[in-house]
């Protein structure tokens, strides 16, 4: 059976459902969250041994909050709560398994400032201090995360340049996370040509891909194509282009399916 987290809308009402599929047939469904004002967006679903966890952002009074719910295997909503006191703008939740327990990543913007913070903390410890993965004065989005080869790998894009400048183009950053500590991958960072000229610039919306031998790849889109990089001891090495090269050939998104 497959699982879907679906957001439905009718006029100003929003409903978040967890649906179990058997082929094209709906076997079971449960309403996890419903609101008559504001909106619900960006759900993230994780399957645990005896339950499911679902996180999403809920907009209320033009302010987004991240909420999370636990659903039993019998499709009963067990808990539903916010992940924090809601003092900032919280967006883009992503649930991941790190070690043996689930963790949650999310982006927060405090007040009306431009600084965005990407943080992570154990899901089952609401009072635990979150670890700051990155803080950028500008764009910070497109987060992907993958537990692989003993570490949690986190990737995102930003328009922040080294000298605290902002750019029109976005570039990828990656960190590893082990036992509460962050580290940078070895060698060169992903191809950041800050002042490159020409039609093909930038990298955004990273997708992390694990290999059975412990290797790690990253696929992201540039201005006009999708590009692949493999992590080695000397840094990120670019492989052959994923798709066609040339003006206007970039995909809207890149997704991976594992076998």
Order of helices and strands: EEEEEEEEEEEEEEEEEEE
Largest sheet: 4 strands, antiparallel
Number of strands: 19
Count of helical regions: 0
Mean of all residue-level pLDDT scores: 84
Structural class: mainly beta
Strand numbers in spatial order across the main sheet: 4-5-6-7
CA-based gyration radius: 19 Å
Percent range for β-strand residues: over 45%
Quaternary structure classification: single chain
Rough outline: globular
Straight-line N-to-C gap:
16 Å
* Unreliable residue stretches: none
Helical residue percent band? under 10%
Protein topology:
Blueprint: E1 2-10, E2 13-22, E3 25-35, E4 39-47, E5 51-60, E6 63-72, E7 77-82, E8 89-98, E9 101-109, E10 115-122, E11 131-137, E12 140-148, E13 151-160, E14 166-178, E15 181-183, E16 204-210, E17 216-221, E18 226-232, E19 235-238
Antiparallel strand pairs: 1-2, 2-3, 4-5, 5-6, 6-7, 8-9, 9-10, 10-11, 12-13, 13-14, 14-15, 16-17, 17-18, 18-19
In words, what does this structure look like?
- With 259 residues, the protein is an all-beta fold.
- The chain is 0% helix and 61% strand.
- The chain is built from no helices and 19 strands.
- It has strands at 2-10, 13-22, 25-35, 39-47, 51-60, 63-72, 77-82, 89-98, 101-109, 115-122, 131-137, 140-148, 151-160, 166-178, 181-183, 204-210, 216-221, 226-232, 235-238.
- Strand 12 and strand 13 form a beta hairpin.
- The relative contact order is 0.08.
- The model has no long low-confidence stretch (mean pLDDT 84).
